[in-house]
Amino acid sequence: MFPKLDPILHSELRLAVISLLAGVESADFTYIKQQTGATAGNLSVQIDKLSAAGYITVEKGFKGKMPCTTCSLTPEGLEAFRNYIDALKEYISH
Amino acid sequence: MFPKLDPILHSELRLAVISLLAGVESADFTYIKQQTGATAGNLSVQIDKLSAAGYITVEKGFKGKMPCTTCSLTPEGLEAFRNYIDALKEYISH
DNA sequence: ATAAACAAGTTTATATTATAAACCAAATTT
DNA sequence: AAATTTGGTTTATAATATAAACTTGTTTAT
After folding, report:
1. Through-space separation of residue A23 CA and nucleotide C19 C1' in angstroms
2. CA→C1' distance for A84 and C10 (Å)
């Protein structure tokens, strides 16, 4: 009746990150931080978890001389996001 | 951009309880436990939190000789549920 | 009548999670 | 060259979720 909600996605900040990434090719740390309003520490941790789950890829490079961490959604991440939305609907739409 | 998700409702079990109660006049502990598949201990704690938040009312009585705890959604609970759904949509529908 | 098993929860202990504070290295500004 | 800013990471703490253990009373079996 109530399907299990993927605990990786059932987190306000991680969900926001995935939601953001679902709409774009990729996004860098600073942009995600700004868009979500998260603190850097929290975002760093949550990005690690999403990455460890295989839901996003993280590439570390430089923009000019400044370090720049770029994230993008993996196909598994997108599928997990869709599954999560479907599961949620069981909770919110009856 | 990403609205805050009410932490009282952003919990798998509490959300299931509210979702269940949103569809009925009232429901008792045992029924909620069975429908959600929760353990009694977990359900007891989460019902307390929902009650403390004013989202549900809890009435303790007897069904025959057996104790029976009956829960129902308050108007505030229903409104919080609706707000939560609206907030969620900002995360899942773009 | 008494012991064993069951029902309906509650309390408490533990594991997990979320979050911010403190920190670090390099770059930029003054 | 000192101070500040950028772009993060690590670590410590607070909050949450969850199950295990317990309680109170009831029903069933002996």
Report:
1. 26
2. 33
Question: What range defines the domain where residue B73 resides?
Answer: 12-88
In this structure, which amino acid lies at residue B82? R
pLDDT in tens, chain A (94 residues): 899 999 999 999 999 999 999 999 999 999 999 999 999 999 999 999 999 999 999 999 999 999 999 999 999 999 999 999 999 999 998 7
Q: CA–CA separation, A87 vs B8, rounded Å?
A: 19
Q: Is residue B5 part of a domain?
A: no
Q: Do A4 and B12 touch (CB under 8 A)?
A: yes
* Structural domains counted in chain B: 1
Of residues B1, B5, B88, nearest to A35 (C-beta): B1
* CATH number for the domain that contains residue B19: 1.10.10.10
Decide: A5 and A87 in contact? Cβ < 8 Å.
Answer: yes
Judged by a CB distance cut-off of 8 A, whether residue A53 touches chain B is: no
